[in-house]
Design goal:
The complex is a heterodimer of chains A (114) and B (116).
Chain A: E1 4-7, E2 10-13, E3 19-25, E4 31-37, E5 43-50, E6 56-57, E7 68-72, E8 75-80, E9 89-96, E10 103-105, E11 109-113
Chain B: E1 4-5, E2 10-14, E3 19-21, E4 24-25, E5 32-39, E6 46-52, E7 59-61, E8 64-69, E9 74-79, E10 88-96, E11 105-106, E12 110-115
Parallel strand pairs in B: 2-12
Antiparallel strand pairs in B: 1-4, 3-9, 5-6, 5-10, 7-8, 8-9, 10-11, 10-12
Classes of the chains: A mainly beta (114), B mainly beta (116).
């Protein structure tokens, strides 16, 4: 399976600021996904990021709040903009790592907004 | 509508006991995939198993086993002879091939605590 890294692993931010999370994969992948996991909750898909096209956002998530870049087949970024304490979550990226439709996840970024 | 239901919120057992986690799913698609993931306290999500809708053969892998029954739309997971290291949140997830978008719908998760 693909090896996925995320930066930063955790951060504490002030409300009103923005944070960009990076996701790096050790091999080329077609699809990358960004999920949010609020404290004590399950994972919710934010958007799907394909290289060379605009990200596709799920209901309840908008590009102005969560802009995503996908400049190549091994890298993506998610920005959490104008943060509020409600944005405190773990943000995880995942990739379709092989031909079996299985998603493999990065280690996550723990974000706390004060 | 909730596509994946994990009715058990928390399960606590003593080491060496068996643990069975329930997962019930809902889909209109004839081709779909079911997954179990483990999330230990460190937070990363670890892939455990994938099953497609045409493969109802149950599987055993070490202390883990899975029971997939289309007739009841269930995909249950059993840990045999549990160990403290099995303490984690376990998520069941569904991917529907109809849209060819590989999105995962997760259940709410079941927190397993194994006491020494």
């Amino acid at each position: 399976s693909a090896v996925i890294s995320q930066k930063p692993s955790r951060d504490i931010c002030q409300r009103g600021t923005s944070l960009t999370i990076q996701c790096q994969v050790d091999s080329q992948v077609t699809m990358m996904f960004w999920y949010r996991q609020q404290p004590g909750q399950s994972l919710t898909l934010i958007a799907t990021a394909n290289q060379g096209s605009e990200a596709t956002y799920e209901s309840g998530f908008v590009i102005d709040k969560f802009p995503i870049s996908r400049p190549n087949l091994t890298f993506s970024t998610l920005t959490v903009s104008n943060m509020s304490p409600e944005d405190s979550s773990i943000y995880l990226c995942s990739v379709d790592g092989d031909s079996t439709d299985t998603q493999y996840f990065g280690p996550g970024t723990r974000l706390t907004v004060l | 509508a909730q596509k994946v239901t994990q009715a058990q919120t928390e399960i606590s057992v003593v080491e060496k006991e068996d643990v069975t986690l329930d997962c019930v799913y809902e889909t209109r698609d004839t081709t779909y995939y079911l997954f179990w993931y483990k999330q230990p306290p460190s937070g990363e999500l670890v892939f455990l198993i994938r099953r497609n809708s045409f493969d109802e053969q149950n599987e055993i892998s070490g202390r883990y086993s899975w029971n997939f029954q289309k007739s009841t739309s269930s995909f249950n997971f059993t840990i045999t002879a549990s160990q403290v290291v099995d303490s984690a949140v376990y998520f069941c997830a569904l991917s529907e091939a109809m849209w060819n978008d590989y999105k995962l719908s997760f259940g709410a998760g079941t927190t397993v605590t194994v006491r020494a």
